[in-house]
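For the sake of clarity, the format in which proteins appear in this thesis is described at this point. The fold follows as a row of integers, each naming the local backbone shape at the matching residue. One such record is shown here in full, so that the layout can be seen directly:
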Amino acid sequence: MTVNPARRSSKRETPVKVKLDRRFYGKIDLLEARFSAGVPSLVDCDALAVEGDVYFESDVTIRGSVLIKNSRSSPAVIKKGTTIDRDLIL
């Protein structure tokens, strides 16, 4: 694992704690489908937990400690350019 140089410059060299729902991210093809436009920026993120079926569009930024939870039976989509800095319950 390599720390993003931008994260180093922000004095946050510790790894981000990431927990992804195994039902939707437990296999590589499922993971790739949900991050097909790229993974969110975690430069200013301390912890990220994703529960439920959530897809990410491009240029999403996560800051701080965040829980993203989708309890619905249909997938949720985090739109392009979104910044999330607090828990998001869908």
